[in-house]
Amino acid sequence: MYFLNEIERKMFLKKMLPKARVLDVDDELRGWNWHQPPLAPAYEERLAVYEVSNTYCSTHRDLYVRRVLKTRINPNYFMISGKAFHQIVVSVIEHAKKLIYFHGPTPQGRLTSALRQAFEISWPSEVNMLTEEQKNDLTNKGKCLAEYEQGRILARVEEVLTQQPYIGADALVHLTVPVVCEHKLDGRFLGLSQYLSADAFMMSDPMVMDIKFGSPRKFHRLSTTGYALAMEALYEMPVNLGCICYGEFKNGQLIVNRDMHLIDDELRQWFIESRDEKMRMIYEEIDPGLADDCQETCPAYEECH
After folding, report:
1. Strand order in 241-250's β-sheet?
2. What are the residues facing 242 on neighbouring strands?
3. Lowest mean pLDDT: which of 116-120, 218-222, 299-303?
4. 82, 245 in Cβ contact below 8 A?
5. Are 47 and 191 a contacting pair, CB within 8 Å?
6. pLDDT computed for residue 133 by the predictor
7. What is the pLDDT of residue 295?
8. What SS3 class is residue 172?
9. Burial class of residue 50 (count of CB atoms within 10 Å of its CB; 0-12, 13-18, 19+)
10. 245 has which bridge partners?
């Protein structure tokens, strides 16, 4: 999911990276200025990045139900399948790294044979809340996703081994799987949770990445923006690029699209305004009311209605 194809790679090198290098970001909106307005949080509440960025409910009453009314919201199919797919991608990548270190690059056949073996998926416990039909659907999609991810990694390993016959295991991991999954960040400088977890940070292409399964939404870019601000606050370095990796299943096939974007002033300002609005709603216990476009797929639908 995280590895760019040939066309995307050209787009990254010739278009996105040059723009990111000269991106003019207002210094007030850099994460390292977390101690002064507008980044300094006005309230003591701590929010997760997904709580700031999610706008599936246009009035944010789902957040009010959970954080102010303290109502436990049961996950629906979309939440459970999303968690399972994220877990599968992470597990396949971690498993591949372990195999490379365990078997080493030579003899090549031993490693590539191990990477070809079917990956055993560990499902989250919430899967037991689904109907049999939903479980079967999720199982088929999960296998499809695991096979896709395995295939991409195997191809990268074989390509590198044909070009670098004297490579060591550590360098092989760095060249073939140059991604840190579930990158942990302490977001307290920005009024965020101290246990933030960015889906991935690509080391070879300096981008913060996020996976979504579903239709692209404009506010999805707020997720990468939030993690970029947290990284800037922690590491005192600019993070100007984000990428949302969209997975969609059609006719038993996985389709992947990626939205590479600049983390510019507009996104940064939007994220901070959303953070402040939601912090105030929670702190002052303001009921935002029902949205005009409530969706029955919303996990808070039953509580609101």
Report:
1. 179-185, 196-202, 207-213, 241-250, 253-262
2. 208, 261
3. 299-303
4. no
5. yes
6. 95
7. 83
8. helix
9. middle
10. 211, 258
